[in-house]
Amino acid sequence: MAFSCSGEHVSKAEARRLFDSAQLAFVTGRRAVVRVDDGRKHGGYCFAPRIDVLAE
Questions:
Q1: How much is the pTM?
Q2: Model pLDDT, residue 9
Q3: What per-residue confidence (pLDDT) applies to 1?
Q4: Which regions of 1-56 does DSSP assign to beta strands (E)?
Q5: What DSSP character marks residue 8?
Q6: Which segments of the chain have a pLDDT < 70?
Q7: CA distance 12 to 6
Q8: Which three-class secondary structure state does DSSP give residue 24?
Q9: pLDDT of residue 42
Q10: In Å, what is the CA distance from 56 to each residue of 23, 28, 34, 35?
C-alpha cells in the first residue's frame, strides 16, 4: 500500500500524517485499521487514504 507521498492523491502533509500513523502503530505494537482504495494506485501499489491506530 502507498500513502501517496508525492501529493498525487492527497496533500504531502496528509500523506506524511498517514505514514506517521503507520509508524506509530508499528513502533508501539498497536493494531491498526487501514482503509485501502484499490481504484487508485501509486507506483503500482494500492492507495491507503485512511489509517486508524487502535487504543490498547
A1: 0.82
A2: 87
A3: 83
A4: 32-42, 45-53
A5: S
A6: none
A7: 6
A8: helix
A9: 82
A10: 16, 10, 17, 20
Cell numbers 481504484 correspond to what residue?
A: 39
Q: How far is residue 34 from each of residues 13, 39, 40, 45, measured CA to CA in Å? A: 18, 15, 15, 14
Distance CA 27, CA 49 (A): 21
Rounded CA-CA distance 54/26 in Å is: 12
pLDDT value for 7:
80
The gap between the terminal CA atoms of the chain, to the nearest Å, is 24
Question: Which cell is 3 given?
Answer: 500513502
Q: Rounded to an integer, what distance in angstroms lies between the CA atom of residue 30 and that of residue 47? A: 21
**Which residue shows C-alpha cell 494500492?**
46
Tell me the one-letter amino acid at 11.
S
